[in-house]
Amino acid sequence: MFVSSGSGGLDVxxxxxxxxxxxxxxxxxxxxxxxFVANTAQVDADGDGAGDICDLCPGxxxxxxxxxxxxxxxxxxxxxxxxxxxxxxxxxxxxxDCNLNTIPDECDIxxxxxxxxDGDGLANDCVTCNDPEDCDDCNSATTDGCFRNRCIxxxxxxxxxxxxxxDGDGDLxxxxxAIMSLCFSGPDGVIPQSCPFGGGAGLP
Length: 204
Hints:
little secondary structure, two-stranded antiparallel ribbon, 3 helices, disordered C terminus
């Protein structure tokens, strides 16, 4: 576009930028739901303010991004289907990830990748040893127990685990004391290799 200086001639060209319609679709920028992609129809099926033709996450609200990673929440992994991305569940503490695989524990359990034999909602690979059931290894041939914050596996028996019953016969006697002495007599809490429950690991 040439602009005259008023002396009757045309001076050097002057370019004027008309930026009210960036994508030239006939819709003004302040009303256009796809600012840089022409979409005269302005269709927005999910009503999130982003036109279908440039919608990052069709069917979900593009404006929701709880972890601020540029990916709308609706298109993030959500294994428990609570409409919150797994990462945000873990950050908020809504879900736990005791084995640190970035997947909420309840999803590991539901998928069978981390069994929960006693049904307490705690995956077996994340035992806390708060009670004997936390050590359940899903093997009916063993009685599982918890001793000094350590899971132990005892021989099969028909009675419930009794704390201190090292041989799994349902009572506390000198046999149990003998096993306990064998397993916990090492220096500085080191378990001897001759211990029937495995050796070498230090005790808390």
